[in-house]
């Protein structure tokens, strides 16, 4: 079985309650990207949200330009850019192509349609039209990425005499990834020939001397993510209630939320060997082409993030590759 490629993702969030400045979150992410390139990680991704108090990155394509320079050995992409909020798709194609040229053809294009109405209200964009606008953006991007002239007539966007210059380093089908959790979104991904995100799994990887130690070392920082930015009430998270056998809405005050059981069911935590063994055990079920994780949640000291990244590179990636090679037993 083929082992997953390991990638990291940055949202550039600042832990304001710990006094972390916005610029520090960005600067240290760039430093960590350079370390990831040195350590042999395959890809680096920038995500997007708007109007968040923690400074969550609103401009992933701009961030990707900096990441491409900092990490010359990594593929660079968005996970994901909200296509309807980037203006005309032809302009988005130009921005992406510039980064592709700056990086020597290392661009991966990750796009989604968005799911938070407030973000669309900020831009005066009708939330109900986001799906049709997104699909037209995909059409235009595919035509532009060929490097050939084209026209396009859509309900939302029109192009006359479109010509992408500079063209991408390798014109043709764009290296496209589509945010596809919903069945309809998966069908859309298949229609456009994109890499399907169920094969690119995003999970937290928390390193420690044990699972309990990993939780203790990361708690302050991941709480800022999962009790604020992605708190269950905000994202509509649910859980299986073992006492009743029912699936119920999950709330922040539920003792199960952010418990070790919660984390173990979703994430990888513990020693590097524990983490490697679990990834190898989950791979037949998940079929991951890419495993992407956040190397530095808001507020985490840079040294701790670098140490964790090194531990994963040296104690997880190589062990997973060996464990998933033919005729190899799982790590003990």
Please provide a written account of the structure.
- There is one protein chain.
- The chain has 332 residues and is α/β, with parallel strands linked by helices.
- It has a domain at 5-207 and 290-317: Luciferase-like domain (TIM Barrel, Alpha-Beta Barrel).
- Helices cover 42% and strands 17% of the residues.
- The protein has 11 helices and 15 strands.
- Strands 1, 2, 3, 4, 5, 8, 9, 10 and 15 form a 9-stranded parallel beta sheet that branches.
- Strand 4, helix 3 (89-102) and strand 5 (107-112) form a beta-alpha-beta unit.
- The protein is globular, with a radius of gyration of 20 Å.
List the helices and strands and how they pair.
Blueprint (H helix, E strand, L loop, with lengths): L4 E6 L11 H18 L3 E4 L13 H11 L4 E4 L2 E2 L6 H14 L4 E6 L4 H6 L7 H15 L5 E4 L4 E5 L13 E3 L4 H9 L3 E2 L3 E3 L2 E3 L3 H19 L2 H4 L2 E4 L4 E4 L10 H7 L1 E3 L1 H15 L3 E4 L8 H22 L9
Compact overview of the structure:
This protein has eleven helices and 15 strands.
Order of helices and strands: EHEHEEHEHHEEEHEEEHHEEHEHEH
For the terminal residues, how far apart are their CA atoms?
18 Å
CATH superfamily of the domain at 5-207 and 290-317: Luciferase-like domain
Outline type: globular
CATH arch. level architecture of the domain at 5-207 and 290-317:
Alpha-Beta Barrel
Q: Work out the number of β strands.
A: 15
Structural class: alpha/beta
Characterize the biggest β-sheet. Answer: 9 strands, parallel
The level of helicity is: 40-55%
At the fold tier of CATH, the topology name of the domain at 5-207 and 290-317 is TIM Barrel
Q: Proportion of β residues?
A: 15-25%
Radius of gyration: 20 Å
């Amino acid at each position: 079985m083929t082992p997953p490629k390991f990638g990291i993702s940055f949202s550039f969030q600042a832990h304001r309650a710990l006094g972390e400045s916005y610029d520090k979150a960005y600067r240290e992410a760039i430093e960590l990207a350079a370390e990831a390139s040195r350590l042999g990680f395959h890809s680096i991704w920038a995500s997007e949200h708007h109007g968040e108090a923690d400074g969550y990155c609103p401009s992933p394509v701009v961030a990707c330009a900096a990441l491409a320079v900092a990490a010359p050995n990594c593929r660079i992409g968005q996970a994901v850019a909200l296509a309807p909020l980037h203006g005309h798709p032809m302009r988005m194609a130009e921005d992406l192509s510039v980064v592709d040229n700056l990086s020597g053809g290392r661009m991966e294009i990750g796009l989604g349609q968005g799911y938070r109405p407030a973000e669309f209200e900020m831009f005066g964009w009708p939330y109900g039209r986001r799906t049709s606008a997104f699909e037209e953006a995909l059409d235009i991007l595919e035509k532009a990425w060929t490097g050939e002239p084209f026209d396009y007539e859509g309900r939302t966007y029109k192009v006359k005499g479109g010509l992408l210059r500079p063209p991408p380093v390798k014109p043709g089908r764009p290296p496209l990834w589509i945010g596809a959790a919903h069945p309809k979104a998966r069908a859309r991904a298949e229609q456009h020939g994109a890499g399907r995100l169920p094969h690119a799994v995003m999970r937290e990887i928390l390193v420690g001397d044990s699972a309990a130690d990993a939780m203790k070392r990361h708690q302050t920082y991941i709480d800022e993510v999962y009790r604020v930015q992605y708190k269950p009430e905000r994202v509509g998270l649910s859980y299986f209630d073992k006492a009743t056998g029912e699936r119920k809405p999950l709330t922040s005050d539920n003792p199960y939320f952010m418990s070790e059981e919660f984390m173990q069911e979703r994430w990888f935590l513990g020693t590097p060997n524990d983490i490697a063994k679990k990834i190898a055990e989950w791979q037949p079920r998940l079929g991951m082409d890419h495993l992407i994780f956040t190397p530095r949640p808001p507020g985490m000291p840079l040294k701790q993030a670098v140490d964790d990244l090194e531990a994963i590179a040296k104690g997880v990636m190589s062990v997973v590759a060996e464990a998933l090679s033919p005729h190899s037993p799982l790590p003990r």
